[in-house]
Design goal:
The protein has 287 residues and is α/β, with parallel strands linked by helices. It contains 12 helices and 8 strands. The structure holds 3-methyl-2-oxobutanoic acid.
């Protein structure tokens, strides 16, 4: 018997395809730790991406390039312990798949074997086909990522929208079709014009997951720390704030400091006492 009720049915890559065909939008968010993974699963988010955005929003790096495989695996393990319903996708960090198809398979395998993930994501189009093919042949589902691919930040000269010329948009479409033919189960489209994302979504039979790509895609993904207002160093224009947790945290920390300074915390209900007779005994022992 399944451990899931019909509402809590485990989401797999097959559900992504079914949702595209049924025109049911796919909701994806990132997580990097156990409590957030639990909260996303409870909110019935379809898929959790342990993104290499980890590097910026949780580890404090300037961009995603310094993130290592070991850092990713450490955080994937925590997320996998917190979520049982969502499809879990691990993001392959810079140089974990670009160097050779052999490296790509070995590192993708670590996400499943050690990290508890169920699929991997990697950035790039036609130039990544040999690596993607090798990973797929090892039985590992692949989510592709086109458009603004943050690991190429220096090639782009900054975090700039992509696909804004006819030639660039045609190349994106060609790449997406090649990725589909190779067998990826979906493709993330980041920061590209909404009408280009719509065109790709119409031409592809696999789902498109947009981030800064407008409404006419098959699903959406955001960096959770951005949408919760937990990361204030840089917020892309396409992020919608659903909460302002930095402000909430700040208020809580200041209230705590004020309580400590005023000796208002802990109050009796937060403290432990001992029976009077034991206290009495202690007094006698000490006299
Ligand atoms: O690393 C990440 O979180 C991502 C998403 C923004 C798609 O790649």
């Amino acid at each position: 018997m399944s451990v899931y009720s019909s509402d809590d049915k485990k989401i797999t890559v097959r559900d992504f395809q079914r949702k595209k065909e049924a025109r049911e939008p796919i909701a994806m968010l990132t997580a990097y730790d156990y409590p957030v993974a639990r909260a996303l699963d409870r909110a019935r988010i379809d898929s959790i991406l342990v993104g290499d955005s980890l590097g910026m929003v949780a580890l404090g790096y300037d961009n995603t390039l310094p993130v290592t495989m070991d850092e990713m695996i450490h955080h994937c393990k925590a997320v996998a312990r917190g979520a049982s319903r969502a499809l879990l996708v691990g993001d392959m960090p810079f140089l974990s798949y670009q160097t050779s198809p052999v490296d790509a398979v070995r590192n993708a395998g670590r996400f499943l074997q050690e990290g508890g993930m169920e699929a991997v994501k990697l950035e790039g189009g036609r130039e990544m086909l040999p690596a993607i093919q090798a990973i797929l042949e090892a039985g590992i589902p692949v989510l592709s990522h086109l458009g603004l691919t943050p690991q190429s930040v220096h090639k782009f000269g900054g975090m700039r929208p992509q696909g804004r010329t006819a030639e660039a948009a045609r190349r994106l479409l060609e790449d997406a079709l090649l990725l589909e033919q190779t067998g990826v189960f979906a493709v993330v489209l980041e920061s590209i014009p909404a009408r280009v994302a719509k065109l790709l979504t119409e031409r592809l039979s696999i789902p498109t997951i947009g981030i800064g790509a407008g409404l006419d895609v098959d699903g959406q993904v955001l960096v959770t720390n951005d949408m919760l207002g937990l990361y204030d160093r840089f917020t892309p224009r396409f992020v919608k704030r659903y909460a302002n947790l930095l402000e909430d945290m700040n208020r809580a920390f200041e209230a705590y400091r004020a309580d400590v300074q005023a000796r208002a915390f802990p109050s009796p209900e937060h403290a432990t006492d001992m029976p009077d007779e034991e206290w009495q005994k202690l007094q006698e022992m000490l006299t």
